[in-house]
Write a structure and sequence with these properties.
This protein is of the alpha+beta class and 220 residues long. The protein has a single domain, classed as L-fuculose-1-phosphate Aldolase (3-Layer(aba) Sandwich), CATH 3.40.225. It is 42% helix and 15% strand. The chain is built from 7 helices and 7 strands. It has a 7-stranded mixed β-sheet, with helices on both faces. Strand 1 and strand 2 form a beta hairpin. The chain is globular and about 50 Å long. The two termini are 26 Å apart. Bound molecules: zinc ion. Zinc ion (ZN) binds next to loops.
């Protein structure tokens, strides 16, 4: 168990680096968590800059967001990450960023419409907007779960705040956060040219199914 958690620490540390490498975070904002047991998660400590973050600094928490080991305080979003893990047993990774283009859509309070094949692939439709929720408790987590219910999107734009993305692994959640920013930027640029052309729902369904089932390499 401890060896397995040590391995996840290394992976989660690398994923925090990839938020920086993909220009999704500034200073100390943003965080990634990983479920390491049915009722335990690792998450970024509060207020630690990315260039100072070490694998051993990631805080082991229960799903109420309380630290169960170490001396560092977990991210102020820990209770919300924990709420998501409690509500959605299939989720093993949660990411939060204030990435610029996606957060601009969140400030605008408008879902990103599904007008790109890449969006149909990854999100299976629009990227929805969740409520403005207070930071610190689990209200953001409740907003994430309620908003994503009935959507295929693994990402949600929390109004006036930023992006939360979920996945069956922390890497999948980071991928969704990266793709969310990518499509937020492209759809924003498309808007500068005028009206975008919507994809028909059956086209979105077909693209999403193909991407889920046929894209990439066969698993060995
Ligand atoms: Zn935030």
């Amino acid at each position: 168990m401890l060896d397995a958690i040590a391995e996840v620490r290394e992976e989660l540390h690398a994923l925090h680096r990839s938020l920086v490498d993909n220009a999704l975070v500034s200073w100390t904002s943003g965080n990634v968590s990983a479920r390491v047991a049915p009722d335990l998660m690792l998450i970024k400590p509060s207020g630690v800059p990315y260039d100072e973050l070490r694998p051993e600094d990631l805080v082991l928490c229960d799903l109420s967001g309380a630290a169960v080991a170490g001396t560092l305080r977990p991210s102020s979003d820990a209770a919300s990450h924990g709420y998501v893990y409690r509500a959605l047993p299939e989720v093993h990774g949660v990411v939060h960023t204030h990435s610029a283009y996606a957060t601009a859509w969140a400030a605008h309070g408008e879902p990103i419409p599904c007008v790109l094949t890449a969006m149909a692939d990854e999100f299976g439709g629009e990227i929805p907007v969740g409520p403005l929720a207070p930071i610190g408790g689990d209200a953001i987590g409740r907003g994430i779960v309620e908003t994503l219910h009935g959507h295929r999107s693994p990402a949600v734009l929390m109004r006036n705040h930023g992006v939360f993305a979920i996945g069956d692994s922390p890497r999948a959640a980071v991928k969704a956060a990266v793709m969310c920013e990518d499509v937020a930027r492209t759809v924003h640029l498309a808007r500068q040219l005028g009206e975008s052309v919507a994809l028909a729902p059956q086209t979105v369904d077909a693209l999403h199914a193909r991407y889920r089932n046929d894209y990439g390499q066969e698993e060995a």
